[in-house]
Amino acid sequence: MSTSRILTLNEVIIQKQSAFPYAKGELSRLLSHIGLAAKIVNNKVNKAGLETSIIGANDLVNIQGEAQQKLDAYADDIFTKALQASGIVCGIASEENDEIIIFDDDLSLDGDYVICIDPLDGSSNIDVNVSVGTIFSVYRRISPHGQKVTNEDFLQPGIKQVAAGYIIYGSSTMLVYTTGLGTTGFTYDPSIGEFCMSHYYMVTPKSGKIYSINEGNYVNFPQGVKQYIKHCQENDADTNRPYTSRYIGSLVADFHRNLLKGGIYIYPKTASAPNGKLRLLYECNPIAFLAEQAGGLATDGYGNRILEIKPTDIHQRVSFFTGSRNMVEKAEEFMRECTDEKSK
Ligand code: P6P
After folding, report:
1. Is residue 115 within 8 Å of residue 58, measured between CB atoms?
2. Closest residue to atom 9 of ligand 1, CA basis
């Protein structure tokens, strides 16, 4: 019987906040509000199969050109309300909204932080009971306090994030976050309604045997990606066991599994996604921050560290290679070789 005391999300945030450079308790409050919204969304997602009124699409199409799921809109509403209620967030860039959301009440106008969020990533999987997730990224505003935020507040490179995280609504619901002091995981205990610390300091294996990519796009992959997949499928010298292909179609679920077991997730440029499919601000940057804090890597496949890319649009897409350090480096090696050959 474990004698270690259960530590809740709020307790750990407060414990760690003293080490946080802007330790005014605001970030703790912000993460607590995110935790509250996560509990509310979790409750709805877990009942999706029972409440036919909330599954399926709502006849709207978001800026991505994707059918908006009813739960997408619900999650977007819940997180927006929770973040505005915190009184320390002055605006949001959300996958579900074409433009930034400006909080113009007096309290929020003086807020220190802006949030980039994908309220419910992988939501097309909800109706088939596959894990989905919320991904968030926190920056300090750069516009003057007391004024409305502008796009520039959100177009900061990922290295400027002060916090990032995801909630995975799966067989159990977890919240994983970082403030730059390592990656920490909390598992939701519905019997007490709290996120309880379950992974104090997550370190991803330097290498692994799992590669996650939608091979349905194979014919349009860059040659370097095709070579890397071939490398994974050939027998491995020391174990004579090829790698395992695991692709759920839900970034948070694929990333979370690879973070724990070791692996690589790749969404490269394809014919239908010439710049890549994943969005820099609210998918790639937060995941990249978490990956690096856990000892992993995140690049665009062309030698560019995701966190150093300067965004030009709030819905900008990039190609995305992330996970175990040795695997991302190997994939980059194949990409370089094939690009070099092409440039000869
Ligand atoms: P595809 C979900 O829409 C998402 O943004 C990620 O969560 C997921 O990894 C990817 O897109 C799936 O895209 O083209 O393979 O269906």
Report:
1. no
2. 251
